[in-house]
Amino acid sequence: QVQLVESGGGLVQAGGSLNLSCAASGRTLSSYAMAWFRQARGKEREFVAVISRSGVTTDYAHIVRGRFAVSRDNAKNTVYLQMNSLKAEDTAVYYCAGGIAFARDGSIYDYWGQGTQVIVTS
Q1: How much of the chain exceeds pLDDT 90, in percent?
Q2: In 3-state terms, the chain is what percent helix, strand and coil (to 5)?
Q3: DSSP 3-state assignment of 27?
Q4: What is the DSSP string of 29-86?
Q5: Residue 112: how many CB atoms within 10 A of its CB?
Q6: pLDDT reported for residue 56
Q7: pLDDT digits (tens, 9 = 90+) for 8-32
Q8: DSSP state, residue 98
Q9: Using CA atoms, how far apart are residues 106 and 98, in angstroms rounded to an integer?
Q10: How far apart are CA 32 and CA 27, in angstroms?
Q11: Counting Cβ atoms within 10 Å, is residue 122 exposed (0-12), middle (13-18) or buried (19+)?
Q12: Neighbouring C-beta atoms of residue 17, cutoff 10 Å
């Protein structure tokens, strides 16, 4: 069993940056591909980014590519999402998720955090 806890969300002006963290406990994070998803109010959850177990391979939703960067520190059992050039449409609750497969499909992931709110003001 893996417990995931996100942090780092908050209120930021458009054009600003935030760095989200996802800390894992229970099992070593290196066993899992880790992804970030987000869900805006009234909308479906959407894929943001994923990183492979080793950290070598990443994939991004086209709407965040070039602005967001996912990374991981397996020694610290933590995954990060650096978000730059934030836009109002990035406002959402951001979730990290862990699973065996490297995928964009949220149904693949077995473990989820409780989410952290990001609000971008224009």
Answers
A1: 94
A2: 5, 50, 40
A3: coil
A4: GGGSEEEEEEE-TTS--EEEEEE-SSSS-EEE-TTTBTTEEEEEETTTTEEEEEE-S-
A5: 18
A6: 97
A7: 999 999 999 999 999 999 888 899 9
A8: E
A9: 10
A10: 10
A11: exposed
A12: 11
Supply 75's token pair.
Answer: 């020694």
Report, as ranges of residue numbers, the positions in the chain whose pLDDT lies below 70: none
User: What would the two tokens of residue 42 be?
Assistant: 């009234």
| Rounded CA separation 99/112 (Å) | 9
Phi-psi region of 115 (alpha: psi -120 to 50; beta: other; left: phi over 0): left
Query: Would you state the structure tokens that stand for residue 78, as one six-digit string?
Result: 């933590």
Check residue 10 and give left, alpha or beta (phi > 0: left; psi -120 to 50: alpha): left
User: Alpha carbon 11 to chain centroid distance?
Assistant: 17
Q: Copy the structure tokens of residue 93.
A: 């609750």
